[in-house]
Amino acid sequence: MLTSDDLCSLRWDATAGTVAIIDQTLLPHTLRWCHLDSLEAFCHAIASMQVRGAPLIGVTAAFGLANALSRDPSSNNLEVARAALLATRPTAVNLHWALRRVVHEVADLPPEQRADRALDCARRLREEDITSCSRIGERGLELLRALPVEGRLNIMTHCNAGWLATIQWGTALAPIYKAHAAGMPVHVWVSETRPRNQGTNLTAWELQRAGVPCTVVADNSCAELMRRGQVDCVLVGSDRTAANGDVCNKVGTCLKALAAREYGVPFYVALPLSTVDMDCPTGGDIPIEERDAAEVLAVAGLDAAGENLEVNLAGAGTRAFNPAFDITPAALVSALVTERGVVSASQDGLSVLLQG
Amino acid sequence: MLTSDDLCSLRWDATAGTVAIIDQTLLPHTLRWCHLDSLEAFCHAIASMQVRGAPLIGVTAAFGLANALSRDPSSNNLEVARAALLATRPTAVNLHWALRRVVHEVADLPPEQRADRALDCARRLREEDITSCSRIGERGLELLRALPVEGRLNIMTHCNAGWLATIQWGTALAPIYKAHAAGMPVHVWVSETRPRNQGTNLTAWELQRAGVPCTVVADNSCAELMRRGQVDCVLVGSDRTAANGDVCNKVGTCLKALAAREYGVPFYVALPLSTVDMDCPTGGDIPIEERDAAEVLAVAGLDAAGENLEVNLAGAGTRAFNPAFDITPAALVSALVTERGVVSASQDGLSVLLQG
């Protein structure tokens, strides 16, 4: 039996005073925990995507800042470490947010009190994330229970919005873990999520580890599965949600929403309210990251000898284009599932929660 | 400058009396022509997918039967060779059709006349396919010219419906080749087409060989490209078309049609009339092939040393499901482009052509 500690992406060992993370670049083939015990190690973990997922990046950075202050609590080092951590993934909103939270708490303290306070703050951020995701799970579980399905509940997801992207539970996967724990017969269609294959590499791995039945499919299969009646709902995460309820998430999400509408399948988006950006009126105002073409043209896996290596798919001189996200119009979203409740994907729905 | 012989999947050398095909399993990394000169070689070429695409399979089988009769024109050998070729891909409709055409022409002839007549029939099937695809290209070119686009015309395709799937021209790619030859500034978005990557492996290769500008994208990107206004039309092939105009094509096709409707992009399907199955009232009556899960969980490419090998993407014990086709409802299809003309995707549209 796995404990919650086995379904967790970042451990804090209070006795040893150390942080350990799963090196996600080695998944699904190798589960390796790395102890982080220097500013360089924390920065490398984030920059090299050993840890990824906005909530997890934020918490990791907070522990990194605390670690730096335990060696040198001076104001100069506070600023040096903050800047180094911020530079690892400059566009991740949670990284800014988490570092700001720590700096805000420690900057005015005498240096000798800073390390303990920073560590305390990092541990609180970690606990807050777990609580927030757990609540998303409970809210989402109510939605799953309300679906008019007898027998096995088939849920389709996209990319990785599980505990590997947060600390525990995840966002989109949290309701699934809660349902499985409650004894509901759930089965997850894991969309492989080209081009980086986070579905195959991360989501299938973490669901299997938790004992949740799942099946990987090509992203292309999702309409066909829905046409056959083999999908009871779609449940995905969100990287940024606009004020009108438009959802920016991993590229390919919108296609699932379009297929869901065509075949009458509910399409739910699970998100912490920290991803809502009321400064973006619509999805059209959200900038879409364009990543390296090499992600489309090459892929990593295990060869026959069990060695992890990358192979080139395309012929020499082939060009590729790689937008990392797409926009799902609010009209295609059946509901937003947040830690404060389930609302319509609309300005009205979000306003109620954010004012509450 | 490439000649039409360089943009052709199967050559007949009248002087040497031999057939040569491109081994498509080696593309895009190696272009190797294989001479086929025994029944075994022809059967292997089809069964191992050195040749694929329904029209190309049919023509290859016809040449195989002629080759067998050149060695032994007896009625017994005619039946043995026909059965062997038919067994290579038992579900491919064009294989039945082409073999039936040859047998029909030679069965009642004196044995000494059979080999020449079979060869003549195979050569005619080859020429007919070229003519049919060329006409699809001309009909489709008219549609492309009618699009209200100034400057570069951005066409999205899926899978491979080019000359590698036929003899020359292709179906969906034929209008693109005609447009390029006519000096129209075309650019093709090549959807990689998971899980077998025919977009990256075959379509990008044949377009580059013909000098047509193209860019590979993850299948997941298609809605995002349309949202940005970067797609002027979608042009795909069809493996089978039902009497009501529903289209069965490579899995992922329906998702492009759904995105095209959402963003107001015309969605055209190019097909030879031989793929229309008036015995299937709707797409729901077409059986969908389910292929090996390994196609989703492993991928082939070139390693750093230039060696072609396969790598496993998923962790041990991962399950996958792999439907090879999906159904695009007729209501999502802007027009069917055939060798006899462009019609609506409907019973009325198809009836006019098939009666004509």
Tally the helices of chain A: 11
Low-pLDDT stretches of chain A:
none
User: What class would the helix/strand composition of chain A place it in?
Assistant: alpha/beta
How many domain regions of chain A? Answer: 2
How would you characterize the overall build of this protein?
The structure is a homodimer of 356-residue chains. By secondary structure, chain A is of the alpha/beta class. Chain A folds into 2 domains: 121 residues, translation initiation factor eif-2b, domain 1 (Four Helix Bundle (Hemerythrin (Met), subunit A), Up-down Bundle); 218 residues, Translation initiation factor eif-2b, domain 2 (Rossmann fold, 3-Layer(aba) Sandwich), CATH 3.40.50. In chain A, 39% of the residues lie in helices and 19% in strands. Chain A is built from 11 helices and 17 strands. In chain A, strands 6-5-4-7-10-16-17 form a 7-stranded mixed β-sheet, sandwiched between helices. A 4-stranded mixed β-sheet of chain A has the order 11-8-9-15, covered by helices on one side. Chain A has a 3-stranded antiparallel β-sheet with strand order 1-2-3, with helices on one face. In chain A, helix 4 crosses helix 5. The longest helix of chain A is centred in the middle third of the chain and has 36 residues. Chain A is globular. The mean pLDDT of chain A is 94. At the A-B interface, helix 7, strand 6, helix 8, helix 9 and strand 12 of A face helix 7, strand 6, helix 8, helix 9 and strand 12 of B. Strand 6 of chain A pairs parallel with strand 14 of chain B.
